[in-house]
Amino acid sequence: MNPFLHILGISIKYLLINSRTLLKLLFQRQKLNLLNSDNIDTVVFTHNLGGGTLNYEKQNFYVENILIIRVVSYRNDFCFSIENAGDKLVATKKNVFDFVKSLKIKNVIVNSLCGYKNPEQILLFVMNNFRTSFNKYLVHDYHCVCNKNNATLLLKEKYCGLKCSGCRLEKKAEKWRRLWHGYFKIVNEIVCFSNSSKEILTSVFPEIKNRISVIPHSMDYCTFSPLNIKNACNIAVVGNCSNIPKGKNVIKKLVKATKKARNRKFYIVGKAPFFFHHNSRFVEYSGKYNLKFLPEILESGKIGVVVFTSILPETFSYAVSEFMRLGLYIVSLNLGAQGEKLKNYEKAVFVKDLRPETILEGVEKCFTL
Question: I need a surface site. Which of 6, 70, 130, 261 has the fewest CB within 10 A?
Fold first, then answer.
């Protein structure tokens, strides 16, 4: 696909989303008063980016006493979506804030503010109106550490290692962290989903150490059994690899280098950018998949090794947990929650970087273990 047409398509889609939002705003703005507000005692602020954060919401927040507020479209805060026990509507930011202030809120949860144009407005709203409520912050991402590139801690497409000195956003990062220092003063509990997340947060906010709880996500949904990979000879990346943090450019280079992988076939199982959408003797793109069919997809492709291409520390990594349950060999960087899990996994091979030649070297090591 022509890159210009791709960008044009994204722009049109963005305009359509906002037009649809405006129409919802017109027809639903009077419905706030129709919500059964008597039972609501908890408000959750979150994003609309999906992923593991959304899975967590479905498991924990879809109940009558919880009001979920999320940004409707990426980097656009003129109105919010409001959800409560199946009811969903759109209202202006002012009307939402006024409505929340009218409720008897006992608990305030900041689930994630990635994707908000002005996330500081949410924090200031909470600090100014709910200091005496029980405040909880959930570490689904590292937004509190840095707002750069949607909190991805990137420096030249690598993990920055929190080395802010010399970063072009150093002064902005200082201002950003002062805001979160202020917010953390009123927070009663901070929930991390891995010990590595706790280490990253306390390196920047040492004062919060005693208020952090490490509570890994439940994996009850995943009932996978180990696959028979005795005769498996192919490799794969699995999951959403459509952005730089998840390894988009890593995979792009790996596709070109696959011919050198001793004729092993390279499978891309999951969402990927348009330039991956071609199959060949060496590469097969299967697209978005249903999780329950993942074992079947991997077995039919004779896939024995999964390359985990995330270039940043994960906060939990559902994907790595799923691969481990399937008994697959895993090639990964030794970073974050993924490194924490894989250190005690006998089928893991850590690589020093994600250059194609390094990855393929790690893959061949897996096939000799």
Answer: 6
Q: In terms of C-beta density within 10 A (0-12 exposed, 13-18 middle, 19 or more buried), how is residue 331 classed? A: buried
Please give the Cα distance from 284 to 261 (Å, whole number). 14
DSSP state of 217: P
User: How many of the other CB atoms lie within 10 Å of CB of 143?
Assistant: 23
Report yes or no: 336 and 197 within 8 Å, Cβ to Cβ: yes
The stretches of 130-245 forming alpha helices (DSSP H) are: 170-184, 195-204
CA atoms within 13 A on the CB side of 78: 7
Tokens of 57: 């919401």
Counting other chains too, the contacts that 161-170 makes at CB distance below 8 Å and 24 or more residues apart are 162/200, 162/203, 162/204
Q: Which residues contact 325 (CB under 8 A, 6 or more apart)?
A: 219, 222, 224, 225, 226
297-312 burial, b for 16+ CB within 10 Å, e for fewer? bbeebebbbbbbbbbb
Question: What is the pLDDT at residue 150?
Answer: 55
At 159-183, the pLDDT tens digits run 888 877 767 667 778 888 999 999 9
> What separation in angstroms does the CA of 210 have from each of 205, 206, 207, 213, 364?
11, 9, 8, 8, 44
Q: How far apart are CA 88 and CA 85, in angstroms?
A: 8
Confidence (pLDDT) at 162: 83
Question: How many of the other CB atoms lie within 10 Å of CB of 336?
Answer: 25
Q: What is the pLDDT of residues 254-276, one digit of tens each?
A: 888 876 666 788 999 988 765 55
Q: Whole-angstrom Cα distance, residue 293 to residue 306? A: 16
Measured distance CA(266)–CA(288) in Å, rounded: 16
Angle between helix 119-129 and 170-184 (nearest 10): 30
SS3 256: helix
The beta strands (E) that lie in the chain are given as 42-46, 66-73, 76-84, 87-92, 107-110, 134-138, 189-192, 212-214, 234-238, 266-269, 283-287, 303-307, 329-332, 348-350
pTM: 0.87
Q: Rg for the chain (alpha carbons), in Å?
A: 22
Residues forming a β-bridge with 212: 190
